[in-house]
Design a protein that fits this description.
The complex is a heterodimer of chains A (66) and B (257).
Chain A: E1 2-5, E2 8-11, H1 18-24, E3 33-36, E4 39-41, E5 56-64
Parallel strand pairs in A: 1-5
Antiparallel strand pairs in A: 1-2, 3-4, 3-5
Chain B: E1 5-7, E2 10-12, E3 16-19, H1 26-36, E4 40-47, E5 68-72, H2 79-91, E6 97-100, H3 113-125, E7 129-134, H4 138-146, E8 151-154, H5 168-177, E9 183-185, H6 191-199, E10 204-207, H7 209-212, H8 217-237
Parallel strand pairs in B: 3-4, 3-10, 4-5, 5-6, 6-7, 7-8, 9-10
Antiparallel strand pairs in B: 1-2
The chains are: A mainly beta (66), B alpha/beta (257).
């Protein structure tokens, strides 16, 4: 199925959790904050929340800024 | 002899807060920040680059145990957007402080004060310590204080302009009328600007471009540290009154015939 991660379509396995999505992107869950359909999902829940086709995922981090 | 620099219940060593944007490379940034002596560093929230072309998280270069990370909502043009970014920043798990920016105009990057007040009220209700970037307008500053902001941050001049403190009278008025800390944010260009700003009696100053865009950022960071300390000391010392006529420093008695 296709979901939208940081504005771009990504194909993930049926039944994938948010933790699985991070795994396919080789991202450390401790290093990013996850927003799923505009709702923040805390780290302990990432393995429990499954994604559905068309879901919007935002993965953010701190970068340099003033 | 100075009072502690206390913001939102947190005491900071340095009255100089420093941004982490626009440095040529992370090593230059770290050297410059160390030279400023700042313990508060600002960071922005952005999408992870999934193609890995970009540098990645700033936390690879700044130890969150050593620096107090103050997330901003830079680049947000509505209250909703700023609230969304603030929530994401807090979720990163370092603290509940946010430097709230709601920008109203792309050319000047001046704040949208209606959006700013709206976002400030929402975030304060959610337990955030809000440091609100605003213009040098007293009434907005008063409303931000009433809204429960932990600090009010009037600009010296537009973000990244390096024009220095354009309106010292208004900044002094804001400082005199507010109880919460007043931290001047944006517009400082060089050390004298920082010194003059601190001489107005404000509690602190936040800058980014003046250090990052200097030819030698570490040396400018050092200069800014001295300037902020000098300006603060001069304010506490209390300057002499201005006169438009000369007053001799040496005795007028005892001159030879």
């Amino acid at each position: 199925m296709t979901i939208v991660v940081n504005g771009s379509p990504r194909v993930v396995a049926e039944g994938a959790t948010l933790l699985d999505v991070l795994g396919t992107l080789s991202l450390d869950p401790r290093a990013v904050v996850v927003e799923h359909n505009r709702r923040i999902v805390r780290r302990p829940a990432l393995g429990e929340v499954r994604v559905a086709p068309g879901d919007a995922i935002e993965l953010v981090q701190f970068v340099g800024g003033g | 002899m100075d009072t502690p620099f206390l913001v939102g219940g947190q005491t900071f060593r340095s009255r100089l807060m420093i941004g982490t944007g626009k440095y040529a490379d992370p090593e230059t940034m770290v050297r410059a920040i160390e030279a400023t002596g700042a313990d508060v560093v600002t960071v922005a929230v952005r999408r992870v680059d999934l193609d890995r072309r970009a540098e990645g998280s700033i936390l690879r270069h700044l130890d969150p145990k050593r620096f107090f990370l103050l997330a901003n909502t830079a680049g947000c043009y509505t209250a909703d957007e700023a609230v969304r970014y603030a929530r994401l920043a807090r979720e990163a798990g370092f603290n509940d402080f946010v430097k709230l920016e709601v920008i109203g105009d792309q050319e000047t990057l001046l704040p949208d004060v209606a959006g700013l007040l709206e976002a400030a009220r929402i975030l304060v209700a959610e337990g955030f310590k809000v440091l609100a970037y605003t213009n040098e307008d007293l009434i907005t500053a008063l409303r931000l204080e009433e809204a429960g902001c932990a600090a009010v941050m009037p600009l010296a001049s537009p973000i990244g302009s390096g024009l220095g403190l354009l309106n010292p009278v208004s900044v002094r008025t804001i400082k005199r009328r507010l109880k919460v800390p007043v931290i001047v944010d944006a517009g400082v260009g060089t050390a004298s600007d920082a010194c003059v700003t601190m001489e107005q009696g404000v509690d602190g100053i936040l800058m980014n471009t003046a250090v990052a865009a200097a030819q030698n950022p570490a040396l400018m960071g050092h200069a800014m540290r001295l300037a902020v300390e000098a300006g603060r000391a001069a304010y506490l010392a209390g300057r002499m009154p201005r006169r438009e006529v000369a007053v001799p420093s040496s005795p007028t008695e005892g001159m030879l015939d």
